[in-house]
Amino acid sequence: MPLIPEERSQSRNLNQELILVNLADAKKDFSNAIKQKDTQCIAIIGNEGADMDSCVSALCLALMLREQSQSGECVFPVISVTREELLLRRDITLLFESLGIKADEHLIFIDEVPFKKLKGERQLRLILVDHNTPFLELEAYADSVVGVVDHHADSNFPLHEALINPALRLDVIETVGSVSSLIYRHSLNSNSSVIKDWKFGALLSSTIALDTDNLTSSVTTQLDSQALNSLRELILDKENIPSFEELRAARRDIDAMTPSELLARDRKFYREGDIIFGISSLPTSLSSQVLGEDALFNSGGSIERQLEVKIGNFSSQLYFVHCSFDGENAWEREIALCYVPSASDLGDSTAKFLESLNGFQPQNLNFSNNNLRVHVYSVPSNLSRKLFSPKIQKFLADSNK
Ligand SMILES: [Mn+2]
Fold it and tell me: Which is higher by pLDDT, 134 or 326?
């Protein structure tokens, strides 16, 4: 059903339209499939941070898998945030705009997918990209996960086996700089026609460049280099594709964002036992931005009404803000710990734990009132969020014992 009929695809200019036509078809097929009871709805979805890797990998993989889907199956990509939240990711909006990808015509957002209904009708299948355990919002649909393509540590999350078409079975977790490189490799063996569209190359190459800092970052692997170099050949003569520098600047562009947009922009939630904690990332220093007059925390919208940061039915008990920025001489990082002081001892014990960590220097930026306490630390510059969050998870797991 979702296969592009032969006549139609030939009547169009393959190099111009294929990605846009197929994304629009995916959206239409999705709208029909969710109204029926007998169609398997196979959602390809990135992680909740909805960075470019998550969004682009979901789009490109879905486009390829659609060509291999059978009747009774509807494969579609899902942007893992709302339409409003996507606007806060200016690297992605810049890239999509330059390629003619429009929210209304081409994209399906997480809040448009009736997950509960689809699960109830046993129609739901999830293929996770750029993560391999369903994030909090999708926790209730864990038993619908049928596939993963990822580069994070393998959580050995069990895949549901009641699939479907063997062509759609994917269980790929490899340490590479970008999931988009894995998607590129998949395209080499896929006979897919969408890869003939230069926009496919533009999407994946932009993402790999950002994820690997143009192949200079330590996460870069041979596959990333090979993928980026080959993909760039496909788009050599194309104009209007934003450059690596433009995309990187757009990624860091937080101009005119409100405090709560800043926090929402790249937020993730984690669960450890009964405890839920959130982490936001900022491309700026807390020291310069925060706890001053235009404060992120003590302004009216203070850390989203004193830490009642909610996702669905959950409310997070601890909240971290992870900051990465160009310091005076080098790349620097800071972490703020925020919590409601009266709620439990958890915040205080977490503060003690952070102080015990190597390289955590408490800063004189702490903020406290009856409703909110904030501790700020300067931390080692190599402490990415990916490295930091497991430390917190382990600490919380140990304190649960
Ligand atoms: Mn990624």
Answer: 134
